[in-house]
Design goal:
The chain is mostly helical. It has a domain at about 15-105. It is built from two helices and no strands. α1 runs antiparallel to α2. The longest helix is centred in the last third of the chain and has 85 residues, at about 65-150. The two termini are about 30 Å apart. The mean pLDDT is about 90.
């Protein structure tokens, strides 16, 4: 029965492929966080704009002084939230770049082992075909010898 190709580093290849998939998942989670943070920033900007509009409308009507004090406090709180979200976004973008580099390294490691596997498989196949051809040649010679002697 023909011997099948067995790559000795299959375990290592699987570990490296798992690491690559893990980094891809982490990268996706970071992208999800970045999008959520961008959404939070947009929401904070929108809230600030709406507060300014509401303040202008509120000032045109007679109102209590306590209500007028609410607007600057709200705007200040939203501005602080906006700045915090921008800081979070900046750190997430740095993490994203680091993970991207880590992913590139992981892909490189997987590719190296896959190339080695392909080389060894090609070598195995060539040796197998060579042995098969030698067997065919040998059988052909035996057949010719028998035909001559009969």
């Amino acid at each position: 029965m023909a011997k099948k190709f067995k790559f000795k580093l299959d375990g290592l290849l699987k570990v490296r492929e798992f690491k690559e998939k893990k980094v891809k998942i982490e990268l996706g989670e970071i992208l999800k966080e970045i999008e959520q943070t961008k959404s939070n920033i947009a929401k904070a900007k929108q809230d600030i704009d709406e507060c300014y509009k509401a303040q202008e409308e509120f000032i045109n009507e007679p109102a209590a002084a306590t209500m007028v004090q609410f607007f600057p406090q709200f705007i200040e709180a939203k501005t602080e939230d906006y700045k915090a979200q921008e800081n979070i976004l900046f750190s997430l973008e740095k993490r994203y770049e680091q993970k991207r580099l880590e992913l590139a390294g992981a892909k490189g490691e997987v590719k190296v082992i896959e190339n080695l596997k392909e080389k060894e498989e090609t070598k195995f196949t060539k040796e197998k075909e060579k042995k098969l051809q030698e067997t065919i040649d040998e059988l052909t010679q035996i057949k010719k010898y028998r035909e001559r002697n009969l």
